[in-house]
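Complex 486.
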Amino acid sequence: MQTRLDRSPIAAIACDALIIPAFEEGAPVTGAACDEQIAAAHGSGECSGKEGEFVLLHGPRGLAAGRLLLVGCGKQALFTAADLRRAAGAGARHLKDKSIRNIALVPGLSGAAAVSAAVEGAILGDYEPDRLKTDPDKSKKRVESFILAVPGAPPEADAAFDRGIILAESQNFSRGLVNEPGNLMTPNELASQARMMSAEAGLECEVLDRERMQQLGMGSLLGVAIGSAEPPVLIIVRYRPEKASAATHLALVGKGVTFDTGGVSIKPADGMEKMKYDMAGGAAVLGAMRAIVKLKPSIAVTALVPAVENMSGSRAQRPGDIVTSLNGKTVEVLNTDAEGRLILIDAITYAQRLGCTHMVDAATLTGAIVVALGHVHVGAFTNNQEMLDRVLRTARAEGEKMWQMPLDDEYKEQLKSAFADLPNIGTRWGGSITAAYFLKEFADPTPWVHLDIAGTAWLDECKPHMAKGPTGVCVRTFTELALGWQ
Ligand code: BES
Ligand code: MN
Ligand code: ZN
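Predicted structure with BES bound:
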């Protein structure tokens, strides 16, 4: 997809279709003769500005555009950059479905955040999880060119536009990794994707293999991996700015279970195919690193992705097994399906050994977070309120919904084992919280935020602005978190 920021008058923008937000407060105005046509559509009730509405006008008078697409955006007074991102995606998807592929958009909102959001929306909306379809015509289902029409945009708009492209392309990179099926996206494959991305983008990438992890003593991570013929890896990607601020070294830790059968505590067959997205946290941190090295924040950032396949079989970990984690604590594995936390704790301890001063992790960790928050909000947990507030502020600005969950010490009562320091599961109640509490036992005292993305990393049905499948959630928040840190 070609992209361009165009400062010429709206009337002069040549394209197959020009997208304009329409609001409930009244018909949109372009200043050209087509305003009469728009007013007619408005008067007939076809263009009410309600969210989700599309009105396509052919041959708009006085415009160089071949068509005008009015996208309903609700109340103008409430219209934000996040709404604009979705509207741009919805407009792009609506048009490409009709094979209208050279498109332009008037953002309907001013400022740098709007410029970024508009181009992000178009790039994210254009993504399709169809790499493995052999249809020779599938390129016809892509946007060919996208023009953002901002007459007289200030000079800063160019940087905002470029930033939006980097963020959205990095998010799509992450979605591409998640979309790969488990037979192709093995831990080793994830490592080679990380290596390739790092080489292209200019990052340092190191991959710890099983032997190295054995030497280090990562018994908790290795216990999960033992049931699979696919060897585990710990992927480490480093971003070091030329002039680093000494104070902060941020770790981004992402769960990289390339397929989760549940192990011996096996999952039901129904829906198990979705468990290829159990590495979405790992993919999110790799996507963020890709954007980070291009946007150059002033802090050091290290990504850690423990990658394993969770299988059952004659060599697999048993319920009741006790493993020794890297930090020395022993864990009784009461349920082999609670494997995410087992691999994350060794990565978290390793991040501390690398000198990271702050840690954020993203993980498709629990079904319980989907029960609690549905598919709307990421569940956010912390041992440091100030750090979580920073993450929540950043996420809000990026249009990624996150909701704080509690982490009171009462939940610790569920984490008692008769035979080891702690069990890997609690009771049925508050499952996403006891999972987070388990991580906290290893993250303390380093300031840490845990994001449970089990409900938000995958769309079960396609949305107007986004295809079914991986969402790439957290890529933008992680990138902006690093950029905003001084
Ligand atoms: N990967 C799953 C969590 C998950 C569930 C992600 C549904 C996406 C959708 C995780 O490894 C898991 O199996 N968690 C268990 C924990 C339980 C055994 C305590 C769960 O949530 O059922
Ligand atoms: Mn599991
Ligand atoms: Zn899992």
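The first helix runs from residue 35 to 43.
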